[in-house]
Write a structure and sequence with these properties.
Helices cover 74% and strands 0% of the residues. The protein is built from eight helices and no strands. The longest helix has 17 residues.
Length: 149
Amino acid sequence: MIDAIQQFFRERVMSADESRPTDEALRIAAAALLFETALSDYELDDSERDKIKDLIKAQFCLADAEIRSLSVLAEQQALQATDLHQFTSLINAHWSEERRSILMDHMWQVVFADGRLDDHELHLMRKIQRLLHIPQAEYVAAKLRHKPR
């Protein structure tokens, strides 16, 4: 299964010009960060998985079959990743600050999908904020927007 996912990634993600990732590579990187967020508290429940699929659908306007494929691939990439750099560097190089801020907002939605903020989640969110070069004010505003009352 893992070999098939890696083959899929190699064939469909990199463009003919290896220095420029495809849109699909960027979608996988963004979705993998959403899964990293969900996995940071060592529990990935259905509410988080459903939230990620909804966010992927909203952000990328994909068909249901594409969402399922992207979700499976991104989750596997997140589980196999040894660091966040492979995802954040790709996004930083090709997305505007506005798009990165939207991704951070989506990540907060995933964090709060289970109704609580765990210390591991907070640590990861701060780390990703720095890696994606998100201004502190935007980071805090997104957190407060999605924090359960």
